[in-house]
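sorry for the late reply, my laptop died twice this morning and i had to redo everyting from scratch. anyway the thing you sent over, i finally got around to it. pasting the sequence first so we're on the same page, its 370 residues, then the predicted structure underneath. double check i copied it right bc i was rushing
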Amino acid sequence: MAGERGQSGIRQSENDHIRRKHTGVDEYDWNATSSKPVGLIEMKQLVCFVILALCVASSCFSVQGSKSKSDDVLAGWKRIWDWHATPNGRIWRGDGNGPFLDSYAEWGWLRRLEGNKEQQVFVSPSAWKNAGFNCVSFDPKTKSLAIRPRVATLAESAITGYTQDDGPFKGHAIFSGMLSLEQLTQACPSNGAWRIVARMPGRGVGGPKFQGAWPAIWLMAHKYPMWDGVNGPRMGEPFFEKHWELDILEQHSKDLSRWYVTDHAQTPFGDPPEVPAQLVATGDTSSTFLEWITIVTDRWWFVYLDRRLILKKAKTKSAGHPPLYLIFNLAIGGSWFGNVTSETDLSKWEMNLRSIDIYAVPSNFVGDKV
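ok and here's the structure:
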């Protein structure tokens, strides 16, 4: 989610790169041909979808109509890195035990994207000289890492320096969690496939009490050469000045049944400045754990949900790109989805990550045949 996006389509600086609001949205109903009875309205929608699919079949960026489950698309692929949630507490790279960073290292260790007007600050126990703040922990019931945001006390807020200027939590910081594989060399391929098993927030919560959640699963291209994971990005010759962001999922709490998948392709590889978001109707993504798969090559980008092909995008020019890293985070509020309200109960918000598996793309993989 959460890469900052320039409203002009061009990055101005590390701190003013603002996430663009999505326009020109296409919609795909994941459940359109399920076994449930199909009414007249649904039948009309299905006919319209079929016509649209025929019209865009030859385009380079389309939402696909593969609504039935297929075999595992990654069967036989070589796994190069994996992580599964365990109760051993190995989460954060900052304490030397885990794989995840808690902030945007290449953007100056930002803990929220100011350009998005986000309300949260991402925390971990080692931040602020080991102050012990944390919103991420192992949940034995779901066997996953749970991100549980909360309102900080006044004393905690003063330590971080992040506070709300107005609204129901004025004077307080809002803590939340971010899990980033940035600059973890073995988990950052240029071409690869990512399998993520996760559950979005919102189960049992609805209406205005849930306004303001902004969960995301997304890939970012590194700007700087790889580093050792401790001392920060190597401030040498950058790969490129602009950024490339692939949003596998962005969702807002006003509609738990749909999510956005977007290519923010501000790269020198022949792509258009930005491809509009694709709005995908899937059913409630918070009711159970789901499997997202994304495949990225020099030529192609694919997104699957529970082995259904959701998106297939061909780059306009086949070319290499820098290593990509995965981010899993729960932002709060912001200019796109709106801020929390006086009825917000953060104690009921929970975003879960069970596992990540990363694979090398086989040399004989042909995206055109998918």
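The domain at 26-49+58-99+179-369 is CATH 2.60.120.200 (Jelly Rolls).
thats about all i looked at so far, will dig more tmrw
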